[in-house]
Write a structure and sequence with these properties.
The protein is of the alpha+beta class and 293 residues long. It has helices at 2-19, 138-142, 149-154, 262-265, 281-285; strands at 28-36, 47-50, 56-58, 64-70, 73-80, 86-94, 99-106, 115-119, 133-137, 159-160, 164-165, 173-177, 180-181, 199-205, 219-225. A five-stranded mixed beta sheet has the order 3-2-5-6-8, with no helix packed on it. The chain has a five-stranded mixed beta sheet with strand order 9-14-15-12-13. It has a three-stranded mixed beta sheet with strand order 4-1-7, with no helix packed on it.
Amino acid sequence: MRNLHIIIVMTLLIALILIYPLWSGTTGKIAGKVIDKNTGDPLPGANVVIIGTSLGAATDIDGQFTVLHIPLGSYDVQASVIGYTNYTITQVRVRIDQTTRINFELEMMVIDGEIVTIVAERNILREDVATSVVAMTADEVLELPVSTIESVVGLQAGIQGNFNIRGGGSDEALFLMDGVTLRDPRNNEPITTLALSSIKEISVERGGFNAEYGQVRSGIVNVVTKEGSKAAYHGSIEFKYSPPGAKYFGISPFDKNSSFLRLYLDDEVCWTGTDNGAWDEYTRRQYPEFLGG
């Protein structure tokens, strides 16, 4: 029996290891090339480090590098190699499941300690994206006059309210939070009850998505939430106000002709019921069946 338990545990662990690479993307990557600015030759063995993190990589013989599994956000990236000045690119944006490409052009060191710093440019055309993708950061979301994820997504081109993407219903869309599918198994509708203050980035794909996503036809909404801070507490409060008004449609439920009271107050049916022939067929259909008092 003990051996059986060990076999079951090992089987589950192996299954999790095999499934992990297929987990929907919640991170991005940075790739690029490091070259000599004067000659254009690649610089192998250069160190590329994301400042403030433990992430980084070294360039290969062609000067190429790739840093994987980077959490979403903006970073300062520095390249360094012996004999050359340190080169830093600031405000490098990492997006959900996408590759941010940056290139470094290092100069021979003239003065010890000389550092070159530039601000990363936002590419209008992203070569690694073959789909219709829109990414929104937390700052962009909080500036919108909306209070739900459905409203944020509905502002994008080709999308109507309630996750109707490219004409498909909400049951044909896929909603992901930190790589986990949130879907009501009864009707296949997405579960989107998330506070906007907890969102770090929202990515919307309207077509051409990769094979790693299943059970989806119209589009994908991928949400990555913020991580807690060790330095401070954060929160948000939302107030909603609506003017006084009726809480019902049509006539008042206290009106003598309401669907509930008329059965008891109308002398034609209150004693003998609605099937006594006093009411015509059209009137009977507007009220529930009543046998009389």
